[in-house]
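Tutorial sheet, problem 5. The four components below are modelled jointly, 1532 residues in total.
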Amino acid sequence: MSTARETIGIGMVGHAFMGAVHSHAWRNVHRFFPVAPIPRLAALGGRDEARAKAAAERFGWAAVETDWRALIARDDVDLVDICTPGDTHAEIAIAALEAGKHVLCEKPLANTLAEAEAMTTAAEKARENGVRSMVAFNYRRVPALAHARKLVASGALGRIRHVRTVYLQDWLSSSDSPMSWRLDKDKAGSGALGDLGAHIVDATQFVTGETVTGVSALTETFVGERPDGSGGTGQVTVDDCALFLGRLSGGGVASFEATRYALGRKNSMRLEVNGSKASLAFDSESMNELSWFDGGDPVTEAGFRRILVTEPAHPYLAAWWPPGHLLGYEHTFTHEIADLLTALGEGRDPAPSFADGLGVQRVLDAAGRSAAGQSRWTTTEGN
Amino acid sequence: MSTARETIGIGMVGHAFMGAVHSHAWRNVHRFFPVAPIPRLAALGGRDEARAKAAAERFGWAAVETDWRALIARDDVDLVDICTPGDTHAEIAIAALEAGKHVLCEKPLANTLAEAEAMTTAAEKARENGVRSMVAFNYRRVPALAHARKLVASGALGRIRHVRTVYLQDWLSSSDSPMSWRLDKDKAGSGALGDLGAHIVDATQFVTGETVTGVSALTETFVGERPDGSGGTGQVTVDDCALFLGRLSGGGVASFEATRYALGRKNSMRLEVNGSKASLAFDSESMNELSWFDGGDPVTEAGFRRILVTEPAHPYLAAWWPPGHLLGYEHTFTHEIADLLTALGEGRDPAPSFADGLGVQRVLDAAGRSAAGQSRWTTTEGN
Amino acid sequence: MSTARETIGIGMVGHAFMGAVHSHAWRNVHRFFPVAPIPRLAALGGRDEARAKAAAERFGWAAVETDWRALIARDDVDLVDICTPGDTHAEIAIAALEAGKHVLCEKPLANTLAEAEAMTTAAEKARENGVRSMVAFNYRRVPALAHARKLVASGALGRIRHVRTVYLQDWLSSSDSPMSWRLDKDKAGSGALGDLGAHIVDATQFVTGETVTGVSALTETFVGERPDGSGGTGQVTVDDCALFLGRLSGGGVASFEATRYALGRKNSMRLEVNGSKASLAFDSESMNELSWFDGGDPVTEAGFRRILVTEPAHPYLAAWWPPGHLLGYEHTFTHEIADLLTALGEGRDPAPSFADGLGVQRVLDAAGRSAAGQSRWTTTEGN
Amino acid sequence: MSTARETIGIGMVGHAFMGAVHSHAWRNVHRFFPVAPIPRLAALGGRDEARAKAAAERFGWAAVETDWRALIARDDVDLVDICTPGDTHAEIAIAALEAGKHVLCEKPLANTLAEAEAMTTAAEKARENGVRSMVAFNYRRVPALAHARKLVASGALGRIRHVRTVYLQDWLSSSDSPMSWRLDKDKAGSGALGDLGAHIVDATQFVTGETVTGVSALTETFVGERPDGSGGTGQVTVDDCALFLGRLSGGGVASFEATRYALGRKNSMRLEVNGSKASLAFDSESMNELSWFDGGDPVTEAGFRRILVTEPAHPYLAAWWPPGHLLGYEHTFTHEIADLLTALGEGRDPAPSFADGLGVQRVLDAAGRSAAGQSRWTTTEGN
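Model answer (structure tokens):
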């Protein structure tokens, strides 16, 4: 069978958890969405050749490169997808953009504010040459949250009074859980703050359409040493949890919590927004649902509605199954890549941009500084 | 990249809803499960050539056939996947089995008991020649229900006292909803009874490991005429809902309801099992969860647990994402096909067999006869 | 402090569970509702004098009688409240009515259809003399169900298609649970059918405003002998569970289940009604909530609403606390008695009448006959 | 009927919302709990004689006093129950204690830290003479929270890592809602902070058995002027919401939010505690339930349990109804008064003491100072 649809060559760096889920999206996106161009899985980048080859075969990539610079340089690579830890994002992304390749970069945009700023500058410069970039905040592509954004944008909530958002995991609850690169500040930049906090800050700014203008924060490391898997122990150099209060540009207030010690909460990213006219609530452990309270309902029939976000009229859903048939985690990446390819095909910038990612980084940076400074109020300059 | 894994050629008949979801599973199963052989999407069958070609391109099939007999005859087709309405199942399945092709057949197995019996006979004969068959009750592959089966089989529930199961949809709630082949007895065999009832009968027999030995039933057609889309009306010749009570081979009792008029319930397949030691409950609208009550818990800490069925130790989950990251509807088909291919690779019969499908059909048939006969108790002979 | 409000003397027979909760309602009703007359707790009837006296002191009754005939005969008793097992209802109620005393009778109205008919005849005769009677189906006074009735009566649900209702308890789940008068047919009349089934039949007829015109039923006794508490065993002579299907006078269908073996369900009386325009659902384990689906909501914002039935505009709520503050089980009895006293004060008949109780009894009787007769369809003559 | 049980004379000041619910508890406590002494409702204090008399008749008080000093002075008053706004608590409580009357004081203990300290000093002095005092944090008497405390105290949660607690109401969501004494700093001391924040701070310290050692806070007034009901507007001089982060004496962290702008949340006091071994969660809108996650459960059967806190073995429940029958809001006051009377009868100090109330006040005071000082970390000296 032949196809008239144009193609685009993808080079992806990194093949762990994020690499697996991105690969699935690249392979399947055009089976469900009428994207143009259609992705070709050109090359997979990984330092260990044997492991990279095994991953390429498993995930469906045509070639492997052990040096990401070589991957960027390939003629058959038009877009570079960065799925590596945060300490490498800036270098790879800037090089790719300078080489004229579009970039999709996993979140958080970078481990430091300086890197995020350099990346944003590079993205804006590349943009002048039609080279586009996007940061991969996949929760924006959960249909329930995309619909929440539409509801806020329509004015249905009125003035935003409150946002309360948490990202709760529990994989560090036991003091016996082993060290990991995610607990090493050099690799990960921060702990729960950057890994989980980035998602809830982005979700807050995305859903409300407002920015976080300042914060007061507290971080804590509950367990300072953990088994390193070889009989010794390793130092945990990042935060185990981060809590912060914030103000929104529209006059509302917000609270944020990111932790890996909420025993029993496996992957619970929750967001509640209270407006003057309506409220909404979301929990990623029930990601096909949106809770919705319409202040205009008759008082005797008012209550939070459990909207099953599976109707064809809901964002992304027309591509999938009949009402009541659920979507899963990886669909958010398929949606993300559908949006990216559609933007490329239409000659538009995809969202969220590196500037959006920088906006998140500014909040995380302010939180880190506040936590280090007696929780004093810290503004997020630039936001 | 080359692969040493053996392949198997798939020919699929039908390319509507079920065809789309089966195609997705055939394309991706080996990316997540270590199946051998690996499927090749050899040929897609569809009567309208243009539509079949469009579907083949979209879903990734290498060729199309407009005659299912030609599809069965192809040398590159080793397994025939039947995704057509129930009135065609028997003819295609029996022909495929006689041609030495393995068969995967969508549920319900057939529209009549006689057809189901003929298919089962053909399957058992083909089996002697190493030709294998399976009926596609995908709910068995929902991890929560697969885990429920394990819990019952382990003895954790003790004696089964009650099963209460419903399959609720609402797409006919309005009298204005149009006619469809699903409302035409000649095509569909029955209405909610066969379409939805088949799932809950199979789920009951699968999870409990028991059979339904007899039933008392009631069916109803609420709206007898519906707009036919061309200005006229069409006669609804099937049931709109079917309710039946049953007894289980182990001494317990069960209730069943299938309807398309449960306004607000989009696709709610629910199953609750009460045993002498524990209880479990499931709802497909929250399909990543299993409710579990352990009668052995201290009375002050006992309560239904909301198990998020997303742990690596849960059925099928090791292939997917970290705990707390949800799966969707189509995963059940990927699991089904993974189980089928694994059985083929290991030279075992896959489950559920056509005989299992026939066992479901006997219950549906008894329900139909009871409903037609003053709800009188009707045994399901053979079960 | 003096009060100008008229009083009414109450005589209550029985002082176990129902006696305790009725006493609480009689003592407190006028503190919250502007009823007239105000109840005086005149006399408590109980066969064992010592136990009756202890109960009277604890519950606040002014006198005791060991013979219910003497209690009826007292000049200071204007109304007789019957809280004894079902086998005594007919005799006491008829005698009280003939003595010109108003009667409140616990459900089920009687253990047999013949007794219920005699009671209804007596009630209708007494009514000509201004003597009034009411049967105590307290679930009608759960604010959520009273509100459900209002919604149906307003036409908001459109045509009723489905009722599905269950009453699940688990106190017999273990085979070691001891014998009780509730398991003895002579005392209790039936098991789960009359005790629990009476509630869900009444709730169905009350909420829908329709009657159950016929049923097909199945009953089962899972454990035939139980320890009698003195080293021996007693025969269980009633049903452990009863399941039945029914048709409603308006053309809809219904399912009913009553059981004491639903492990983990402590007192779960559930009712779901699906109409052509809206649906509602209730569970007594969350009795301050009503689930409500409005088919008129925009499809993207439609979902079951969790209405907290605690607004002043909800039935009975203006008498209690601010929104969001919950009511409990005994409030339903306070409401029941407030309605009764208000009707007496206004010279109206209270509801539900003995005739309503008889209507429930006819359904239970038909269910019993169907279960004994191969589940054959059995009409509820008179309904 | 006579009773041998000793009695105690109660004088209550204030007869609005809190007066109504306290009266109900005083009237009924001995009908359910074997308390000694038994309360006599001696006198009700209220400035407007006509309104006080009406309330006394409605609630069952034997006399009225228009001057609280006269009420304290009555010989038939042994215990003074203070149900007035916070600005009057100190004066009344101190006078009552000095007059040798036991005191029950509604929360918050006082409007200022200085008053709370003076009250605590007075209480400690009175205690030397056998005069006892208690502050009325009724949420401690919600069975689910009392059980939560027992679970933490038993060590079942291990080390406490996180507390997250909110108290959400919505009665100010509309800018049109009128002024009230609760929005006037002179009367109310503070807004959501003192009214709602006091409950969640006490609940945190009660359930964990730890103290909040410091906080960082933010407060906001969204709507500065509101209609005064007479055509003009009134100035809102208190906070509309208060959010704060805290640290616990055992090393954990906590977050607090109190607001009257959470549209759709009528009275949602929520508390989640994550320990190293188990987690628990509570929501007052489902106050008969406790969520419980036991980290020791097998990973495939672990999940938050919905414990229905209605078993006889649960705190306070043996006095009430069978399992699965719910309690309501006012039961918490009946429990509170049962505990108070039992302590008096046994010659013990009831809890929580004024010192406990002062401990809460210190946290609220620190939060107020932090909010006024750039959210800087503020320790709660004395805690």
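Marking note: Chain C is about 30% helix and 25% strand. Full credit if you identified this.
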